[in-house]
Amino acid sequence: MADPVDGVDIPWEQARATNLANWDSRVALHVEAYGLERYREDPAHLSTVVRTDLRTLERHLPAGTLEGLSLCHLQCHIGTDTVSLARAGAAVVGVDFSAPALEAAAAFASELGVDATWVHGDVLEARALVDRELGADVRFDVVYTSIGAITWLEDLAAWARQIAALLRPGGVFYIRDGHPFLYSLDETREELVARYRYFTDGRALQWEDATTYVGDGVVTAPRTYEWNHPLSETVTALLDAALVIEAMEEGRTLPWRFADRMVELEDGDFAWPGAEADVMPCTFTIVARRPA
Ligand SMILES: C[S@@+](CC[C@H](N)C(=O)[O-])C[C@H]1O[C@@H](n2cnc3c(N)ncnc32)[C@H](O)[C@@H]1O
């Protein structure tokens, strides 16, 4: 892997097109490596991500369950978490800008007999896409996004406005994503050493990496652009979109191996070894509500 370049000035459309090519090229590898057979073998199987998320999310739902609620899953990828949310009772709509990812998601859901609707396009245009595909009166009880989502977006204020516009009054937004302090670390070092900017300014971090986070395959479009977002930026974006924050958590585990020396746990998640687990956060979670 070439050394990443921090502080790259690149127009959003150009960065998005580069990232799209990268995400399209990961789909076939992920269909092989995401463990789809577990969902086929066990009709009750839910992803570890969704099982973890439900423990927090359900506390903020009217009847303590997704049963009977409408849910919009932003950046749904190949649909494993979307299917899990549907199995937990939600009527799901998945949004993603990768057409191959949505094709894989649709094939997977229909093979499993799971009802789901897929909306293709940029998450920063999600409201207009849902208007066009499903109707302007469609509002969701829950908007959900998780794990590896906002680092692909430059403009969190625009993202938060989409979320607010997708929610019905009283609806709940849930996010669990990689912690921005984690993203500032040098993942190649044998100790915890910060390398990348935590406080960012709109300029991107450019990666050249032919691997992906599951399996051994290589991608044909290795370049990506990412934006680290300090926690305060995410919180401020949601508050500015008039959402009310109800809960915030920070977690010690991740569903992917961020650094080689992370240890695998029984449920397949990863953690920093020993006492480092108490030093470095892995994720943050925010639950926010659109006022009724
Ligand atoms: C790491 S996945 C997150 C999904 C989930 N955690 C998973 O592992 O299935 C990131 C997803 O974001 C999507 N994505 C990235 N930028 C996007 C954008 N601007 N609009 C919509 N989707 C985007 C990618 O296509 C990819 O499916």
Describe the structure.
The longest helix is centred in the N-terminal third of the chain and has 22 residues. This protein has nine helices and 13 strands. The termini are far apart. The protein has a single domain, classed as Rossmann fold (3-Layer(aba) Sandwich), CATH 3.40.50.150. Strands 4-3-2-5-6-13-9 form a seven-stranded mixed sheet, sandwiched between helices. The protein has a three-stranded antiparallel sheet with strand order 1-7-8. The protein is α/β, with parallel strands linked by helices. About 30% of the residues lie in helices and about 25% in strands. The structure holds S-adenosylmethionine. S-adenosylmethionine binds next to helix 1 and helix 4.
Annotate the secondary structure layout.
Blueprint: E1 5-8, H1 12-33, H2 36-41, H3 48-57, E2 70-74, H4 80-87, E3 91-96, H5 99-112, E4 116-120, H6 126-134, E5 140-146, H7 156-166, E6 167-178, H8 180-183, E7 204-208, E8 223-226, H9 231-240, E9 244-251, E10 253-254, E11 263-264, E12 270-271, E13 283-289
Parallel strand pairs: 2-3, 2-5, 3-4, 5-6
Antiparallel strand pairs: 1-7, 6-13, 7-8, 9-13, 10-12, 11-12
Helix pairs in contact: 1-5, 7-9
This protein binds S-adenosylmethionine.
Residues 16, 19, 23, 75, 77, 80-81, 96-98, 101, 122-123, 146-149, 152-153 line the site of S-adenosylmethionine.
